Amino acid sequence: MAYTTIDDPSAHFQTTIYTGNDTDGTQITNSGNSDLKPDWLWIKNRTDAGDAPATGGIWDSTRGFAQDKVLTSFTSNSEGQNANGFAIATTDGFTVEDGTSGDNPRTATNKNAKNYVAWQWKANGGTTSSNTDGDITSTVQANTTAGFSVVTYTGTGSAGTVGHGLGETPNIVIVKERGNTNSWLVQSNQISSVNFVTFLNRGDTGGEDDSTTFNGTHPTSSVFSVGTHTGTNRSSGTYVAYCFASIKGYSKFGIYEGNNSTDGTFVYTGFKPAFVMVKNIDAAYGWQMLDNKRDPHNVRNQSLFANLTNAEDVTTADETDFLSNGFKNREGGNSANDNYTYLYMAFAEHPFVSSKGVPVTAG
Predict the structure, then answer these.
(1) How far apart are CA 336 and CA 169, in angstroms?
(2) Nearest to 313 by CA among 343, 333, 327
(3) Residues 297, 257: Cα–Cα separation, whole Å
(4) Do residues 120 and 13 lie in contact, with contact meaning Cβ atoms separated by under 8 Å?
(5) Alpha-carbon gap, residue 140 to 62, rounded angstroms
(6) Which helix (H) or strand (E) holds 80?
(7) pLDDT tens for residues 96-137?
């Protein structure tokens, strides 16, 4: 078997940074080796802080790219509770569009002279299919090559299963109820407890032990489980789930133990990371996000947090190096390398070894 099936990760994931200009319909173009029309688009305002809905948004091509389809990772807001701008996917990037909020119609995506970052994933170009693998029929848009699917379904209120379309077991499942103010719920099969649940929009605790959320069951190669919790399975509630499976040389999801040292823990991924998100699952610290565009050189310390509206800041207590085959923490901060257990998600800039078995030059 080849070391990797993805020689060019930019065909499936890219980070783009840009500066807002207050001009409706401005085109933002990706710079990767491959064109990428995003199916999952996550934008954060790097400059502004404070008013949560105004500092970013999440869209996908299953639910649609529109103002009333925005979700925000740093709130439990229902779909559409942000009138501060939106984005529409294009052939190789997206356009940023004005919202309808009176004083700040562009703050989330295109306020003049403000800096933004956009993380983008490819699913299946917006083409969906009905999936009956689970007890609950779902609508699935899957990129099985890159181990990513967008799943929508309607809850029943009774414990059941939902098809995810990946054809292999997802390592991470992130679920958000679209029509109510429930938290973003995250399940990882890297964590031994089947009842352990953490929250994308919260950093107050590492997580909680709740058998009702994912029905005390890890995902399988065809389905993930939902219990009776309203955050994953309210009767007649509408939901979106983002499912991720590790792909050798392209993506990796797992846990590691911090060591509270400047000679920090090394995490082997099998690729040079383009993006890393880390969550302390033992204590009250948030989801730290690093990438190779906002911070192109080691050490990487320009942090944003998925669960916060804070502006980007240099976090010298949580500095990280991106290496040719993984990442290494260089400080002993609580967010990434204290004496705790951490959950991580990582996507590649390039694999350590190509599909032809040739080591890829670090850079």
Answers:
(1) 26
(2) 333
(3) 24
(4) yes
(5) 8
(6) none
(7) 999 887 677 888 999 999 999 999 999 999 999 999 999 999
311-342 pLDDT, tens per residue?
Answer: 998 877 789 999 999 999 998 888 899 999 99
* Token output for 200: 């994308």
Phi, psi of 29 (to 5 degrees): -110, 135
Give the separation between CA 62 and CA 24, rounded to whole angstroms: 23
CA distance 83 to 54: 8
Closest C-alpha to 224, from 281, 140, 306? 140
80-88 contact pairs (CB < 8 A, 24+): 81/53, 82/53, 82/54, 82/57, 82/108, 83/53, 84/53, 84/54, 84/108, 84/109, 85/57, 85/109, 85/110, 85/111, 86/57, 86/59, 87/28, 87/41, 87/43, 87/57, 87/59, 87/118
CA distance 27 to 97: 9
| Beta-bridge partners for 60 | 40, 64
| Distance, CA of 88 to CA of 241 (rounded, Å) | 20
The three-state secondary structure class of 332 is coil
* 35-72 pLDDT, tens digit each: 999 999 999 999 988 766 678 999 999 999 999 999 99
Which residue stretches of the chain are H helix? 230-233
Residues 353/360, Cβ–Cβ less than 8 Å: yes
Confidence label for 361 from pLDDT (cuts 50, 70 and 90): low
pLDDT of residue 95: 98
What is d(CA 187, CA 243) in angstroms, rounded to the nearest whole number? Answer: 10
Instruction: Say how far apart CA 147 and CA 119 lie, in whole Å.
Output: 16
CA dihedral 29, 35, 38, 42 (to 10 degrees): -50
Q: Which distant-in-sequence residues (6+ apart) come within 8 Å of 327 by Cβ?
A: 266, 267, 269, 273, 276, 320, 321, 346
Q: Which one-letter amino acid corresponds to residue 146?
A: A
Per-residue b/e over 147-175, b at no fewer than 16 CB within 10 Å? bbbbbbbebbeebbbbbbbbeebbbbbbb
Query: From the centroid of its chain, how far is CA 325?
Result: 21
